[in-house]
Design a protein that fits this description.
Layout (H helix, E strand, L loop, with lengths): L5 E12 L38 H13 L3 E2 L2 E2 L2 E4 L9 E4 L6 E7 L5 E11 L3 E5 L9 E5 L6 E7 L6 H18 L11 E11 L9 E6 L2 H20 L7 E6 L4 E7 L9 E2 L6 E2 L2 H9 L5 H11 L4 H9 L1 H13 L4 H18 L11 H12 L5 H14 L4 H8 L7 H14 L1 H8 L5 H12 L6 H11 L1
Parallel strand pairs: 12-13
Antiparallel strand pairs: 1-10, 1-11, 2-6, 3-16, 4-5, 4-15, 6-7, 7-10, 8-9, 11-12, 13-14
Bound molecules: zinc ion.
């Protein structure tokens, strides 16, 4: 796409599955991966004469998510019926919220400095799932089976304003939004299991124009990579249509992952196609402001705040901070270690990211599979900071003991002869002697030939057969020259 000629306008609709134990209007389990049609009852299979009852936990989660996205929680909202026919929708309609959503007018500040406004957050129930069976490449599927385990699972739909202007920004928005939902504890954020699903609305307009172009809605975009690729594909497709003098049609398109393209699915429905009307079986949702405030107060720390602490207070760089924040368990472990040893958070971060998680990932295990705990990391960091052992020995000689032994690291290092010479006095004396031995080199170093520092370090290390603490050697050298 010619970026000098067209601008991309993107709005995202994200369906997030709320992490409740039971469904939105009945007490069936929401467990993923259960035997097909085992988590069902007369309510979620829409037998006649049943009545829905709202899951309070789902409401609480929706409020939490909305508040974390800086939305106004509406004290009055209501449920509506959205009618459409689909084989995995037994009622023939979905209970959703139409003109009075539970929350509106929020925003998300992205880490690239941009802001994406959020139009609304509403609650709704999920549909079931069709399983197309007997499929092969030549003939397509022979028949389809329906699994209603997912029918009635609570969702929130988060609708952004069309503020997103590129594929990268869209991806970042989804990533950061997902992380917020994870931190609030309202959604497990699992894209593969469909806990987070994204529809992309995208149109192009001539650069600088205020008039929006005709948009296409892309469904089934279920990974961060797919979001980016689908948008790039649409930018190209739509710009080619416009370039050749054609018109983009308003339609719903499907992202085909395997072929890396979008295909036309159906012409886009308008709201009136769904014949919304107020759900007669549920009363309007009138919330008590005090209760809403209590829920909002219980939100806890969000990723952006945490990142700020890591960068400003602990002096981590953006990348170090991001790695710790992105993985909630890793971040928690880091915080726990800092409680035991707060002198050098950067050291702790580097041990966790470069040693601990490198090992866990390589061996496909988690912390629980090992004996490692926060005190032990603190002990290791302290020993490294004090120059008792060098960085080089940790991965080489200490790794198994670090994860699986319960003996003190100090004792292990002593027994294995891994301790460095960290006698400051002895090292200083040696440094002095070396400096005197090489007056010419010293003069050159002082004149700015920085490279010679390595020469001196090398000479000193030779005297200690490589066992002196590099940290102390460097400090002593800096002090004496
Ligand atoms: Zn049920």
């Amino acid at each position: 796409m010619n970026k000098n000629k067209y601008e991309t306008v993107i709005g995202l609709e994200i369906h997030a599955q709320l992490k409740t134990k039971t469904k939105l209007f009945c007490s069936c389990s929401t467990q993923f991966g259960s035997e097909p049609n085992s988590n069902v009852c007369p309510i979620c299979t829409a037998l006649p004469g049943v009545l829905p009852v709202l899951n309070q936990k789902a409401l609480e989660y929706a409020i939490k998510a909305a508040a974390a996205l800086n939305c106004t929680v509406n004290l009055y909202s209501k449920f509506d019926r959205k009618q459409y026919f689909y084989p995995d929708l037994p009622k023939g309609y979905q209970i959703s919220q139409y003109d009075k959503p539970v929350a509106s007018s929020g925003y998300l500040d992205l880490s690239d400095g941009s802001k994406v406004r959020i139009h609304r957050v509403h609650m709704e129930e999920d549909a079931g799932k069709l399983v197309h069976a007997g499929a092969d490449r030549l003939h397509g599927s022979d028949y389809s089976l329906v699994d209603l385990n997912r029918a009635g699972t609570p969702l929130i739909e988060i609708v952004s304003e069309p503020d997103i202007t590129s594929a990268e920004q869209a991806k970042l928005y989804v990533q950061e939004l997902r992380l917020i939902l994870l931190y609030c504890g309202v959604c497990d954020g699992n894209l593969e299991e469909g806990s987070l699903r994204c529809d992309v609305n995208i149109s192009l307009k001539p650069k600088g124009s205020n008039v929006l172009g005709t948009r296409a809605e892309i469904k089934n975009v279920n990974s961060f990579k797919a979001i980016q690729k689908a948008i790039e594909y649409e930018e190209k497709r739509q710009s080619e249509i416009l370039e050749s003098g054609g018109k983009v049609i308003q339609e719903t398109r499907l992202w085909e992952e395997a072929k890396g393209r979008t295909i036309s699915m159906r012409s886009k429905e308008e709201a009136n196609d769904y014949r919304y009307f107020p759900e007669p079986d549920l009363r309007p949702l009138v919330l008590d402001k005090n209760i809403v405030d209590e829920i909002i107060k219980s939100l806890g720390i969000l990723p952006a705040q945490k990142k700020e602490t890591y960068i400003n207070q602990y002096k981590l760089n953006t990348e170090e901070a991001y790695i710790l924040i992105e993985d909630i368990e890793r971040g928690k472990f880091f915080d726990e270690c800092i409680k035991h040893y707060s002198t050098n958070p950067k050291r702790i971060a580097s041990i966790i990211n470069q040693i601990v998680y490198a090992y866990l990932n390589e061996n496909k295990i988690t912390l629980i599979d090992t004996k490692l705990n926060a005190q032990r990391i603190a002990e290791l960091a302290k020993m490294l900071d004090q120059g008792i052992i060098g960085d080089n020995v940790v991965k080489k000689d200490l790794l198994e003991d670090l994860f699986y032994s319960e003996e003190s690291l100090r004792k292990i290092c002593k027994d294995k002869g891994l301790e460095q010479i960290s006698d400051e006095k002895a090292i200083k004396e040696e440094v002095k002697a070396i400096i005197e031995e090489f007056p010419n080199e010293l003069a050159e170093l002082k004149a700015g030939k920085i490279k010679l520092k390595a020469f001196f370090v090398g000479q000193i290390m030779k005297r200690f057969k490589g066992k002196a603490s590099a940290l102390i050697v460097n400090n002593a050298l800096d002090e004496l020259i």
